[in-house]
Amino acid sequence: MKTLGRVALAVLVIVAIVVLIFVGNVVAGMRSHARATGTISGLRLRAPVQILRDDRGVPHVIAGNEHDLFFAQGYVEGSDRLYQMDTLRRYILGELAEVYGPHALSADETERAVPVRAMVQTQWQRLPARSREILGAFSDGVNAAMEREPLPVEFRILSYRPAPWTPRDSLAVAMVTVLDLIDDWDAVARRDAAYRRGGMALLDARFPFTDPCYDAPVLAGLAHAAPGPLCRRRVADLERHLADARPPIGSNEWAAGANRTLQHRALLANDPHLALQMPGVWYLLDLRAPGFHVAGATLPGCPAIVLGHNERVAWGATDGTVTSLSAFLPPAHLDPSGWHTERFSVRFGRETTRRYYRTDREFGTPTAVGRFVLVHWNAYTDPTTPAQTFIDLNRARSIEAATAVLARFPGPTQNFVVADTSGRVAYQLAGQIPDDPVRGRWLHPAGDLTRDYPAIPFARMPRVAPSRDAVVWTANNKMYPGEYPFPMSPQFAPPYRAYRIAQLLRARRTYDVPYFAAMQMDALSLPERELARDVAPMLRSRDASLAAELAGWNGVMDGDSTTATIVESLRLNLTHRTTGRVPTLLMQPISARALRAAPLTSPEPWRVAGAVPVLHALSSLGINFLDGTTLPGYGDALTLHVQYPGYGQSFRAVWDVGNWDAGGITLPQGESGEIASTHYTDQAQAWIAGRLWPLPFSDAAVQRTAATREMLTP
C-alpha cells in the first residue's frame, strides 16, 4: 500500500508539472506576438525590404522587386494570421480532425466530397511561370515567419505545430471563398424538394425569384430605380418574401463618375458581407515595388490584393447570386471505377476511411436534404484559380484593362464595379454561369448527365459601360429589368438593400466621401417598416399604444429603439428563427387572431437585443479569452448596415479615386490575429462609430503615419 501511495504521489507530481508547463507555455504565448521593429536577416531575399506599420498595424511593404515584395507579404501574413491560415487550410482540405479530434470528423468528411487537393494541383500546373514565382515567394515568406516569430497561442493550446506552407496551400485557401459564395448542391436540393412536393407554386412561394416591389436593377439606370411609392400588397405577400429560408448573404457596392461627385473624381464604396469572427476575414496591406503599387484587403494565406486599388484603378465586388453548377439525380447504377477511398487521420481516435464518387465529368455528394446527387461544375472539370484574376487585376491601368482581366475570371460569379483616374466608373458581371435552362431550380434527371451546358459568353453578361456620368450599384439583387436572354439565377438575394442604395443615390445630384461612408451606416429596413405598418391595424383592439408605435415607426434599426426589437421578432417569427435576446412574440404565421393572442413583452433596446458577439473558433471549446469586442445592435440582415449573429459587413471601404490618401477602409475588429498585439481589436470602436480609417498610400503619407519600422534583409 505504501508503494502504491508513493507511485500515486509521483504520478500526481508529474501531472502537476506537466500542467504547470502547459499553462506556462500558454501564458507565454498570450504575452508574445510577432515583431514589428528592428532588422530580420538571413532571409531568401534579393535586396532589403522595408515594412512600415501605421497606427493600426497595417503593413506598408516597400521592396525593390516583386519577388521580395511577395516574400514580405507572406512574412507579415504569416506573422499576424498564421493560426487562421492553418485552420483555413485544414478546413478546406478536410484535415481538421488531425488536430481537433473525432468531433471535427464530420466536417472533414463533408469537405472531402469536393476534391480540392486534386483541383488545386491542376490549377497550379496551369498557372503561368510569373504567378508560380509569386506564390513560391509568398510561401517562402510564410515559412520564414514560422521559423523566426513566436507561434500564436492557439498552437500552444492545441499542442501542435503547423506544417510548412506551400504555394498550393494558397490556392486551396482561395477555394474556401469559392465554396462559400456559389449556389451549391445543397441549395439546389432544397429547391428541388419544394418543387417535387408542391410544383412551381410551392417553389415560387418558398424561393421567390425576387421581390418586384423593391427591384432596383442597375441596368435600368438610376433614373428608373427606386422611384416610389412602393406597390401595395397583402401582408401574406410580404410574408412570403421575408420568409427567405437562406442565411443572409451578400455585399454592397456602388460608384459614381467624376461628373457626379463634389471633387470631380470618381468615388467607389464596397462592404462585403461575410462571417463576423476572430480574427476577421480580411487582412489589410499596402504593397509597393517598381512598377507595382496596390493597397486594400486580401484573404489571409493569399498573395496580392483581392479588393482595393492600385495607382489608377479601384474595384469592388458583390456576389452575383447566380447559377453556379448543374446537379443531377444519379442513374440506377454508377460506374464502379468512379469510387475512391479517402483516409482520415483522427487525433485521439482511430484512422477512418470513406468512399467518394468522382469521374472526369462529375463528382457525387450527399446534400442537406439527404439526397445523393451528381454535380457538373466548371471549377471541377476545368480547374482555374480565381487568384490569377486578382493578381492580374492588381496591374490593370484602366477600366478597359480591368474588364479584359475579368473576362478570364472563372468564378464564383461576381458583380464588379470599377473606377479609374479618368473619372469613369463601370459595372460588369464576371464569372462562368452555365447556360442551363433549369438554372438550379431543381435536380436534372439522370438522363441529362450526357448533356453539356457551356458558360454564357462574357460579351453577353450584364454590364454598364464606363462613363464619367455613370452611377452604378449592386447588392446581390437582380441586376437587369424584365427578362434576360440567358438563364441567370434560380433566386436572387432580396432587393431591399439595392433599393435603399438607389434611394440614397437618387437623393443627391453629387456625392463625396462622407456621404458614401454615411450610406454604409444606414440602418433603415424598408420591408420591416412595411411589415410594422401592415400589422399595426391588427393590434389596435388589443394594444392601441403599440399599434400606434408600429404604425409610426420610421423603420430604422437603431440601437436605442425598442420598436426595432419588436419588429425584428415579428420578422424572425415569420422565418421560424430565434436569435440572441430577441423575444419571440408570435408562434404562428401573421394574422389578426395570432397577433391578438401573442404574448407581448417589454423589449430591450435593439443595441442590447441585437448585440452580436464576435467569436474565435476556439470558443466552441469553451476558450473565450480570444473572442473579440461585442458589437451593439444596429441594423440587421435587411439594412445596408448588415449585422446579424455571426455575419455582417466584413470591411467598409470608400475610395476617392486618384486621391488615395483620402477615403479609407475599416475592419470590424483589428489587423492582428494575435491577442497580445495592441491591434487585435483596436478598430472595433471606430467600426461601431462608423469611422472610415484612412489607408495611407502616397510615400509622404506612409512615412508620416509610420508607427513602427522593420527591415527584412538577405
Could you explain how this protein is built, in words?
- The chain has 714 residues and is α+β, with helices and mostly antiparallel strands.
- Helices cover 34% and strands 17% of the residues.
- The protein has 23 helices and 25 strands.
- The strands form 5 sheets. An 11-stranded mixed beta sheet has the order 1-25-2-3-7-8-9-10-16-17-18, with helices on both faces.
- A hairpin with a 7-residue loop joins strand 23 and strand 24.
- Helix 6 packs across helix 9 (167-181).
- The N and C termini lie far apart (64 Å).
Share of helical residues: 25-40%
Unreliable residue stretches:
1-24, 577-590
Please outline the major beta sheet.
11 strands, mixed
Assembly state: single chain
Number of beta-strand segments:
25
The coarse silhouette is globular
Radius of gyration: 26 Å
Percent of residues in beta strands: 15-25%
